[in-house]
Amino acid sequence: MAANRKAVKLRIKSIQSTMQITKAMELVAASKLRHAKERAEKSKPYFDILQTALEQIAAGNTEFSSPYAKKAASEVWCYVVIAGDRGFAGGYNNNLFKCLEQEVQGKEYMVLPIGKKAVEYYKRREVPILTEAFSEAGDISVADCFEMARMLCSEFRKGTIGYISLCYTEFVSMMTQTPKTDPMLPLTELVANAEKKDRYGQILYEPDSSQVFDVIVPEYLAGMIYGAMSESVASELAARRMVMDAATKNAGEMIETLNLYYNRVRQAGITQEITEIVAGAEGNS
Amino acid sequence: MNTFRLQIVTPDGLVFDEQAQRVVVRSMTGDMAILAGHCNYCTGLGMGEARVTSAGGEVRRAACIGGMLTVVEGDCRIVATTWEWQEQIDRDRAELAKKRAEEKLAQKNLSDKEQKIAEAKLRRALVRIGVKQ
């Protein structure tokens, strides 16, 4: 009985220290989240307006001289996958990979992973990787996004890749984050997303469409990646905060049950001792 | 004067979303102005001064660097890499950036990439100083 009591005590202690860790992780995620959420909210209009503008251009485009507006030259897809640097965020990373898994079925594809988890995952699966230079999702700056955009554009122009899509986690609210994929290039892929109801008239390009596309497409890719980055980082932190909150609550519950058990065992021990003493005293008299 | 809806966004947020009479920007090929009733249009932006005439007729100047301008169904959207209103520009910082870029360009043994970066920095600094004056 005594040994059991000691084991329970130890278990309670160990759960308590785990709880402290999860509590601390939750607090850290919550404070970082405030900052990340602000950034995501700030870049949201940019992201949305950029996307609408390009969708409208794609829908109204009748000029296919630019390689960006033509039909894909190759059947290889390139996915820019934005995952996290660390685990302990519930299904955040896995949901994203699963979402992409469905998307790529039957396609020949390669990835540009951002974030340590993404790099590790695709390395293990031996999926061709465009570059591993951006393994730290936390420190990606606007300049890095431009770097990626330039790299993607040059591969696209060479014809090594025919389609470029973005795979990230949308920050819907503090409670919900949904993984999704958005097509980026070629522009013909965007037409499906544009509002069908109004047909846009022809667009005038100055000086001409291929020169305009040469300038705006890298900007567009960089902007999209940056926007998706901000959303993903906020999503990761929100997911982590939620999971750690749940873990802390669970630990609290476990401690409560164990405490109850511990006290019962203790009580039983005392009762038994008293019974023994009383029985002994009675035997003497 | 007729007005049109003008939206200006940068990665740092929505800068402007109001009716405007006129907007002047430096495009890839030179300065251009958009007025109400413009046809559908799309161009890339260069680096230069931009002027927005609000619905009330007040003119605001800004430094606009990179990005694109589109007009669709009468709505004008400027998606810029950076957009700084005149009053937001830090003169001293721009002067410092100009000096640093000039020093860098004075060196002989620059790689192509370094040369380009320094040139771009110098041009950005010059645009900012120009708008501030």
Descriptive tags:
heterodimer, A: 285 residues, alpha/beta, Helix Hairpins, Pyruvate Kinase, Chain: A, domain 1, 2 domains, four-stranded mixed beta sheet, 5 helices, elongated, B: 133 residues, alpha+beta, ATP Synthase, domain 1, Single alpha-helices involved in coiled-coils or other helix-helix interfaces, five-stranded mixed β-barrel, 2 helices
In short:
The complex is a heterodimer of chains A (285) and B (133). Chain A is of the alpha/beta class and 285 residues long.
Describe this structure in words.
The complex is a heterodimer of chains A (285) and B (133). Chain A is α/β, with parallel strands linked by helices. Chain A has helices at residues 2-60, 92-103, 116-124, 142-158, 209-284, and strands at 76-82, 108-114, 163-171, 177-185, 204-205. Chain A has two domains: 2-22 and 244-284, ATP synthase, gamma subunit, helix hairpin domain (Helix Hairpins, Orthogonal Bundle); 37-242, ATP synthase, F1 complex, gamma subunit (Pyruvate Kinase, Chain: A, domain 1). Chain A is built from five helices and five strands; from the N terminus they run αβαβααβββα. Chain A has a four-stranded mixed β-sheet, sandwiched between helices. Chain A is elongated, with a radius of gyration of 28 Å. The model of chain A has no long low-confidence stretch (mean pLDDT 83). With 133 residues, chain B is of the alpha+beta class. Chain B has two domains: 4-87, F0F1 ATP synthase delta/epsilon subunit, N-terminal (ATP Synthase, domain 1, Sandwich), CATH 2.60.15; 90-132, Single alpha-helices involved in coiled-coils or other helix-helix interfaces. The model of chain B has no long low-confidence stretch (mean pLDDT 86). The chains are: A alpha/beta (285), B alpha+beta (133). Chain A binds chain B through residues 42-43, 45-46, 49-50, 52-53, 56-57, 60, 142, 198, 200-207, 211-212, 214-216, 219-220, 223, 226-227, and chain B through 7, 9-14, 27-29, 32, 39-45, 66-68, 70, 72-73, 77, 79, 81. Strand 5 (204-205) of chain A pairs parallel with strand 4 (41-44) of chain B, so a sheet runs across the interface.
